[in-house]
Amino acid sequence: MNQRLEGAKRRMEGASKAFANEINSVRTGRASTALLDRVTVDAYGVRTPLNQIASISAPEARLLTIQPYDRGLFQNIEKAIQESDLGLTPNNDGQIIRIGIPQLSEERRKEFVRLVGKMAEEARVAVRNVRRDVLNEIKRAEKEGEVSKNEVGRIQDDVQKLTDAEIKLIDEQLRRKEAEILEV
What we know:
The protein is of the alpha+beta class and 184 residues long. It contains five helices and six strands, in the order αββαββαββαα. It is elongated, with a radius of gyration of 22 Å.
């Protein structure tokens, strides 16, 4: 049973970490290198994450710079950024690619808050699905006589505590991201 609890904890933490990675790529009014984490570039015939073929930095609050390791990839990088759903326009001077991060309109901010809220709900559902799976395993084990009724109650409490902790973490991440998006 402890193995099942550890597995549940690992899967729940995975859901909250995936959520954290996903919301990092949501645009705010500030420049963040995480914005480009999901951008993949056609490099040497293979789709490669941008951060593996270029150095990305945020030297100013509203500016990202990209320095490709191979100068032959400038056009592919520009094309990949333009085709992404980020709504950013790269400027290439032959040495470095600069991306200005425009101020978000109030309407766009609200849209991003809704998007992040939807992502949070999907993460909560993933955590609850793990809880459901573990509880079903425990009930099956009880029917087969592997665990006692008292132990089932204890394990259910432990699983609920894990679930509550991960959902609380997801909610905290959501609140921080919403504040970041709404910051003018």
